[in-house]
Amino acid sequence: MNKKQQVTALLKAIETGATEPVATINANKYIQHNLNVEDGLAGFGKLLQQLPPKSARVNTVRVFQDGNFVFAHTEYNFFGPKIGFDIFRFEDGKIVEHWDNLQTTAEPNPSKHTMTDGTTQTVDLDKTEANKTLVKSFVDDILVNGRMEKLAGYFNGDSYIQHNPLIPDQLSGLGKALEAMAKQGITMKYDKIHTVLGEGNFVLVVSEGHLGGRHSSFYDLFRVENGKIAEHWDTIEEIPAKEGWKNNNGKFGFTY
Fold first, then answer.
1. What are the beta bridge partners of residue 95?
2. Does any domain span residue 120?
3. Are 86 and 99 in contact (CB under 8 A)?
4. Is the entire prediction scored with pTM above 0.85?
């Protein structure tokens, strides 16, 4: 199996209990960045043992590869229904590091889109680096630095498909949603981009910031079409206080 197939099989093993896919993990060097899970392969196993029997469900909707990294977009029932992005780093053919971002599954948004529906087809592989540059600039300009005068330039008119549970389609929908949040005193601030991964027309940006004053991790997946942002999915997860961490690796730590 290729790396994407290995990751899909490993995630599915959470549901099926299959042991063979776990051999993809380097048991001597597995760095865990989910702060609710103890480090190493033993920590992963301990978490699975805490699941109610036959309760887990795993449906990986999208999976991509960028060099030694594979990232997946998955529907879970894992201590309750969740949508997750998982990132795995491979080294010498084995998984040695894992990051994720999980959010409780929400109802369809005002435009009737779920958190995972939409196209899954990867195209424009020759444009991967250009698309990563475009999306990183968008997040840096708009979400980190608030240069809203540049917003329209990243989109093809008002055409924009949105999968965030609270925000409708179209660029105007995004503007109205942000305005409504501001009126409710809900602030969203991106402080730092930690990594940008992509394959073809899909780009994932991992960022750190605050939502409603709470320290949060933002995973944003964008689909690019003809040099413009066409579609967006995301998960937002609150980062627990350090005294509650079950490992000391931090939520991010992308150094490769």
1. 25, 90
2. no
3. yes
4. yes
Tell me which of 51, 79, 107 is where a domain ends.
Answer: 107
Query: Which range of residues forms the domain containing residue 47?
Result: 3-107
* Structure tokens given for 120: 């899954």
Residue 184: the pLDDT is 86
Low-confidence ranges of the chain (pLDDT < 70): 256
Report pLDDT for 125.
Answer: 98
Q: Are residues 220 and 177 in the same domain?
A: yes
Order across the sheet with 228-238: list the strands. 161-162, 228-238, 214-225, 202-211, 188-199
List of long-range contacts for 151-154, beta carbons under 8 Å, 24+ apart:
151/175, 154/228, 154/229
Going by DSSP bridges, is the β-strand pair 161-162/188-199 parallel, antiparallel, or unpaired?
Answer: unpaired
pLDDT at 140: 97
Q: Which amino acid is at 115?
A: M
C-alpha span between 244 and 251 (Å, rounded): 12
pLDDT digits (tens, 9 = 90+) for 148-185: 899 999 999 888 999 999 999 998 888 788 788 878 88
CA distance 62 to 121: 9
Is the same domain home to 100 and 146?
no
